[in-house]
Inverse folding.
């Protein structure tokens, strides 16, 4: 045996191509943020270096890997007898049976124990979702044309962790029915709480049981403190990273009180107030576009 | 006089060795520990090679302080914050143990990355140690998951909103992202179960995986041996062999020749 071959069996030599490839990938990723031609430059760099790298590797393997394959020989038994002779290990022996059955029974027991445990870990997050309707007080507490900052407890059994905030505006009457704009405060970028862009009037705060209503003085829209997403008063994105408009709550009026129902996602709002046309979508997680090519990345939605 | 002294030290030695021999005879553990601790390593290993055991030490500190913190912490949305306040302000040395866990987490992650950088720059991930690199990458992922799940546990506003953002970032992964987010939430949004869910993942699921992976990692280190640095003169493949020109060698890290050149 040649020791020099034994020492380093199949190690590729040092090469600068991987470094160039890595630089190309970095330039590509930075380019996605900065400008398309930087991205193109990065893509070209990465492709060129990847090509060189692969070429070197394949060339090396051609030189060194010349496996000495023994010529195929017919498996002929030396006896030359016509009857096939069975070696002892060919028989399906008792010990093989016991080995396999022990493994099989063990696997079945493991499966029986693991399946419900795994299911218990995963399933409750997807079954029986949905929240009860939340009562946020009488219509008369919501003056027309003004956003109110309403916080409420979605599920009293869960306590403060289910506390939510919505921006509620009374739009007056539409076809004889009261109309409201109820915007969720969860940013459509990554779910931080958006804030009203304008002063509040905390002295006029009303407490109705769990529900707290703080009037705004006048606001120009909403802004997110986390990553700077900006929205107008209808919840349409005006600046920053959000990929869609702010989510809204569906609502119903019973005995003169407003009840918040299921939230839904919004593509775009055209028009304002009661006359607004709203593109409604089933609610999605923040950061997921509801329309366009990027929304194809999320074809299936979990039940929620 | 001299003989009495000799017998006394003999007796002392016997008293110490007797329990060790007793254990060795029945388990072979003493020999095993000796085999593990007194392995041969290359003569020119230096301080860089201690980063791995430093990382292990940092993890053991996290495990120990974490177990003790778990004796006082309450993973319930209504009492978690108060229990953290109690640990920090009222319990004896609670501030110290919580501080060790909180800052030790950063130390652990930093040492993980330094250890990984050392292995990369030394080329110590190469044949036959690729599998150990892969195990190390799994350990890195586990360490980062520990950081993510542990960050929620103080249950203050920073923790809550950082986790909201973190889960929603997971939710933007293509195809299965929304399901991953819902799994992490334990529901459509962060709810009363999320905290105990993260607590269980943080202190049972992932630490178990880390312990198992560290066992595998160390087994491979013992089995394959410590690699010598790229500038080593003794390392295999660095000198000419049998009159052949020096090949690329098995120590072909980025730092190859750096020491010799100085």
């Amino acid at each position: 045996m040649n020791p020099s071959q034994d020492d380093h069996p199949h190690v590729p030599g040092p090469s600068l191509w991987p470094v160039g490839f890595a630089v190309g990938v970095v330039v590509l990723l930075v380019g996605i943020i900065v400008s398309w031609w930087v991205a193109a430059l990065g893509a070209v760099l990465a492709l060129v270096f990847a090509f060189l790298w692969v070429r070197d590797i394949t060339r090396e393997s051609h030189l060194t890997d010349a496996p000495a394959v023994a010529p195929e020989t017919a498996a002929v038994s030396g006896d030359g007898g016509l009857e096939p002779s069975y070696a002892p290990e060919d028989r399906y022996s008792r010990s093989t049976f016991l080995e396999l059955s022990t493994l099989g029974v063990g696997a079945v027991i493991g499966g029986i124990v693991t399946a419900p445990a795994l299911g218990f870990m995963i399933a409750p997050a997807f079954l029986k979702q949905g929240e009860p309707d939340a009562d946020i007080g009488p219509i008369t507490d919501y003056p027309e044309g003004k956003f109110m900052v309403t916080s409420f407890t979605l599920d009293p059994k869960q306590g403060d962790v289910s506390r939510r905030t919505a921006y509620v505006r009374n739009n007056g009457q539409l076809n004889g029915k009261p109309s409201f704009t109820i915007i969720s405060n969860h940013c459509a970028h990554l779910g931080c709480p958006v804030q009203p862009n304008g002063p509040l009037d905390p002295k006029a705060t009303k407490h109705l049981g769990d529900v707290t209503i703080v009037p705004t003085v006048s606001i120009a829209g909403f802004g997110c403190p986390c990553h700077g997403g900006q929205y107008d008063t209808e919840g349409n994105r005006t600046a920053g990273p959000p990929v869609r408009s702010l989510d809204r709550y569906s609502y119903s009026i019973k005995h003169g009180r407003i009840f918040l129902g299921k939230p839904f996602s919004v593509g775009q709002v055209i028009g304002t107030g009661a006359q607004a046309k709203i593109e409604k979508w089933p609610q999605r997680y923040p950061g997921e576009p509801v329309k366009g090519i990027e929304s194809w990345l999320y074809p299936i939605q979990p039940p929620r | 006089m001299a003989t009495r002294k000799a017998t006394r030290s003999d007796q002392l030695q016997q008293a110490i060795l007797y329990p060790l021999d007793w254990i060795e005879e029945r388990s072979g553990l003493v020999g095993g520990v000796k085999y593990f601790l007194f392995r041969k390593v290359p003569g020119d290993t230096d301080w860089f090679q201690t980063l791995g055991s430093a990382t292990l030490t940092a993890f053991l500190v996290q495990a120990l302080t974490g177990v003790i913190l778990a004796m006082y912490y309450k993973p319930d949305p209504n009492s978690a914050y108060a229990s953290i306040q109690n640990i920090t302000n009222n319990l004896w040395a609670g501030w110290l143990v919580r501080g060790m866990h909180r800052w030790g987490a950063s130390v652990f992650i930093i040492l993980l990355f330094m250890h990984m950088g050392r292995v990369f720059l030394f080329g110590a991930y190469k044949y036959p140690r690729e599998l150990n690199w892969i195990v190390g990458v799994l350990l890195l992922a586990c360490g980062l998951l520990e950081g993510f799940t542990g960050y929620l546990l103080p249950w203050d506003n920073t923790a809550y909103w950082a986790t909201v953002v973190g889960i929603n970032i997971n939710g933007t992964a293509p195809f299965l992202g929304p399901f991953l987010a819902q799994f992490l939430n334990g529901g459509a949004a962060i709810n009363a179960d999320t905290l105990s869910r993260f607590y269980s993942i943080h202190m049972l699921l992932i630490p178990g995986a880390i312990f198992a992976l560290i066992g595998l990692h160390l087994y491979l280190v013992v089995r394959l041996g410590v690699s010598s640095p790229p500038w080593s003169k003794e390392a295999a493949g660095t000198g000419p062999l049998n009159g052949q020109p020096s090949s690329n060698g098995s120590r072909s890290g980025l730092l190859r020749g750096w020491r010799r050149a100085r």
